[in-house]
Amino acid sequence: MLPGTASLKQTGGRELAGIVFDADTIAARVRALGREITAAYPDGELLVLGLLKGSFIFLSDLVRRIERPLQVDFLVAASYGADTVSSGEVRLLYDPETTLRGKHILLVEDIVDTGKTLNRMVTLLRRRDPRSLDICALLHKHVAEHLELEPVFVGFDAPRSFLVGYGLDHAENFRHLPYIASLT
Ligand code: IMP
Ligand code: MG
Question: Which of 35, 65, 69, 95 is the most exposed place for a label (fewest CB within 10 A)?
Fold first, then answer.
């Protein structure tokens, strides 16, 4: 059993198969992303918009590596139930209070799989008249048939297996793991 995991009963019967990205590897990549993002926005107001819940750990580490003024807000989009296959349905559960008009918007996502969640979000956010809209994804599976907007900032190209940890869940389990692992 890998560190930080509980008994099988507590994890819906799924076990971790192996670590795919360890904590040090993630930290180094997040530092580099912070430098890239800092350089990419020399002026203007920057709003970092995290897609909950999956991006919560990534976003909190990432914003501490961006060395320019910014604001943080969140969106909740639910597409997966307790399943590991996307239902394709995306529900928007919360809209940020913050005005998006005239600001650089950086949408932060945990993982791009089918791209349905992001496509829906991009369509909604574009209507709010931002100065710019770009995506930062921790993981990219490169399996999406059509992306409205290709992520400009990507942490890692991901294997096609189902991944958990560092914010990513399976049926709400495993989000707290400090590393990213695959499931059996
Ligand atoms: P998409 O709409 O199919 O791109 O799915 C995006 C969302 O599905 C992500 O924000 C995750 O919450 C979830 N997801 C997709 N692949 C994985 C995975 O391998 N592990 C955990 N969650 C995933
Ligand atoms: Mg999820």
Answer: 69
Residue numbers of the domain that contains 133:
27-156
Number of domains in the chain: 1
- Output the pTM of the full model: 0.89
pLDDT in tens, 127-151: 889 999 999 999 999 999 999 999 9
Residue 80 forms part of a structural domain: yes
Per the domain annotation, does 70 fall within a domain? Answer: yes
Whether residue 19 is contained in a domain is answered as no
Decide if 66 contacts 40 (C-beta within 8 A): no
Rg of the chain over all Cα atoms, to the nearest angstrom: 16
Ligand 1 pocket residue status of 38, Cβ below 6 Å: no
One-letter amino acid at 159 equals P
* Residue positions annotated with a catalytic role: 113
CA of 85 relative to ligand 1 center, distance in Å: 8
